[in-house]
Specification:
Blueprint (H helix, E strand, L loop, with lengths): L2 E10 L7 E11 L4 E6 L5 H8 L7 E6 L2 E2 L7 H7 E4 L12 H11 L4 H14 L4 H4 L9 H13 L5 E5 L7 H18 L2 E6 L2 H5 L4 E6 L2 E6 L1 H5 L2 H6 L6 H11 L15
Parallel strand pairs: 3-8, 3-9, 6-7, 7-8
Antiparallel strand pairs: 1-2, 1-4, 4-5, 9-10
Helix pairs in contact: 3-4, 3-6, 4-6, 6-7
Bound molecules: adenosine-5'-diphosphate (ADP).
Adenosine-5'-diphosphate (ADP) binds next to strand 2 and helix 1.
């Protein structure tokens, strides 16, 4: 599904001394099947923005279209929108609560009123995407799993709803390097297999640069830079000034070129870093 955001502004606590403009006239378009990295420092407006994309927050002004439907208009069925746009919150494992992995992942599909067979097939599919062995873990308590496994089960719970757009808010936060790599690999495989539209939110370029087709850089509520990772990295100085480090390979290529080498960034890709 495609997403279009038009002049989106959002203010918290309007009319109080604490009024805060969290999104300031944000506009962008995401095409069907694109993998987007939404990046910016803490407080730049990323979480506020993604909560608008599935109708959890209502804009102070501006509109959002999912395909051609304006989801910010009055009378839109937000339950349906939340099925289409799956949102994985930060630390989603805090929301695990069922006795078994199967029960947890099947919770959403069950609420949709699907039959047993369909529910089971969705749970199997979702767990396979996140690399959790169905037979081995379906009857295990989620609370007996490792941190990384818990998080992957929680992500499977959103996947089991088979959303058309998947948004993940800092999915690697607090994981060790192995857990981080596993989650990023899962997301990469999911995009390859399903062609789902994916928005990966992060404050780390390293997490998103390799995976995303396009990056949207947020700063103080505005989307100040957007484009392919390569286009975005051309703004090294701006990125550095807002605390976003460009992946190391860029520096390596630049410093080697300064020393008289003639390396082409088009050939040396970020994934080879
Ligand atoms: P990010 O996800 O990039 O860390 P947020 O969207 O959480 O940024 O925050 C954007 C701005 O809005 C910040 O200045 C933050 O302090 C403020 N903010 C976020 N949530 C609330 C809230 N519930 N009430 C008031 N201000 C908020």
């Amino acid at each position: 599904m495609s997403i279009k955001v038009n002049n989106l502004t959002f203010k918290y606590m309007v009319g109080t001394p604490f009024e805060k403009t969290a999104l300031d006239n944000v506009s962008f378009e995401i095409k069907d099947g694109e993998f987007i990295g939404l990046i910016g420092h803490t407080g730049s407006g990323k979480s506020t923005l993604i909560q608008h994309l599935n109708g959890l927050l209502k804009p102070t002004s501006g509109e959002i279209y999912i395909d051609d439907e304006c989801i910010t208009a009055k009378g839109v069925d937000l339950k349906r929108i939340r099925q289409l746009v799956g949102l994985v919150f930060q630390y989603p494992e805090h929301q695990l609560f069922e006795e078994t992995v199967f029960k947890d992942v099947s919770y959403g599909p069950k609420n949709l009123g699907l039959d047993e067979e369909e529910i089971e097939s969705r749970v199997k599919w979702a767990l396979s995407i996140v690399g959790i062995d169905y037979d081995k873990y379906k009857d295990v308590s989620p609370f007996d799993l490792s941190g990384g496994q818990k998080r992957r089960v929680a992500i499977a719970g959103v996947l089991a709803m088979q959303p058309k757009v998947l948004i993940l808010d800092e999915p690697t936060a607090g994981l060790d390097p192995k857990g981080r790599d596993e989650i990023l690999q899962n997301i990469k495989n999911l995009h390859k297999k399903s062609k789902m539209t994916i928005i990966l939110v992060s404050h780390s370029m390293d997490d998103v640069a390799e995976l995303a087709d396009k990056l949207i850089v947020m700063y103080r509520g505005k989307n100040i830079i957007q484009g392919t990772p390569k286009e975005v990295f051309r703004n090294v100085e701006t990125l550095e000034s807002i605390g976003l480090a460009v992946p190391q390979v860029k520096y390596l290529v630049q410093s080697l070129n300064k020393k008289g080498f003639n390396l082409n960034e088009d050939i040396i890709t970020v994934s080879e870093a």
